[in-house]
Every structure is written in structure tokens, then in C-alpha cells.
Amino acid sequence: MNVKREKLGERIKRVRQERQLGLRELAGKLGISATYLSRIETCQESSPPAEKVIRGLADLLQDDFDELMQLAGRVPEDVENMIKRDPDMPAFLRTASEKNVSGAELMKMLKKRKGDP
């Protein structure tokens, strides 16, 4: 079964409408132009929004920041910095990928190791 993956703009528009927020209203709260937000929502913007804009969207729309960043094809700055600081992190991530271990499985293992519920 081939499931179509939602694009960033489609997600933002859908959630904005579910929250009954107008395009101009949301853009104003974000401090961006309605034209720019419209281009994001219609997937006409050539580059993904900055992390600050995505974080603002996540906060105002009460949506998941990390999922929005993933849909934008961006890596959050704190994650990028962690990867750059730890020389073993790239090899760890490659190994997890090669072994088809998902992020959810890694989180479960870490919680189990630390004794978290």
C-alpha cells in the first residue's frame, strides 16, 4: 500500500484550518507576511522556512516541532550541534540505520536502560 506523505505546507495549512486560524492572522502572529505563509502552504516557496519560523508555527499551531522540521528537510540546530560535538555520533547513527533500528526503538532502549517507564 502506497501512502502519500504529507508535505510541510499541506500540514501547516491543514492544522491551521483545524485550529480555525486565518492565514493573515497566523502570519501576523509569526511576524511574517501572509504572502510568504501562503507560498509555504502551497509548496511554492523554494527553500524551507527558517527554524525560528517552524518553531513559531509549531507553538502557535500546537503541533510537533520535530515533525515539522523533518517535513521541512531540516535538522534542528541543537541536534546538529550535538552531532558536531560528539565524534562518535555519525557512526552511531549510521550503524542504527544499517541495522534498521528506528528512533522510536532507540528511545525505548534508552528508557529501559535508565529504568524509565
Structure notes:
The protein is mainly alpha-helical and 117 residues long. The protein has two domains: 8-75, 434 Repressor (Amino-terminal Domain); 86-114, no CATH class. The protein contains eight helices and no strands. The protein has helices spanning 8-18, 23-30, 34-41, 51-61, 65-72, 77-85, 89-98, 103-114.
Task: Please tag this protein with its features.
434 Repressor (Amino-terminal Domain); 0% strand; single chain
The total beta strand count reads 0
Number of helices: 8
Architecture of the largest domain, according to CATH? Answer: Orthogonal Bundle
**Rg from C-alpha positions?**
17 Å
As for the CATH topology of the largest domain, it is 434 Repressor (Amino-terminal Domain)
What's the pLDDT, averaged over the residues?
93
Please specify the SSE layout and strand pairing.
Elements: H1 8-18, H2 23-30, H3 34-41, H4 51-61, H5 65-72, H6 77-85, H7 89-98, H8 103-114
Quick rundown:
With 117 residues, the protein is mainly α.
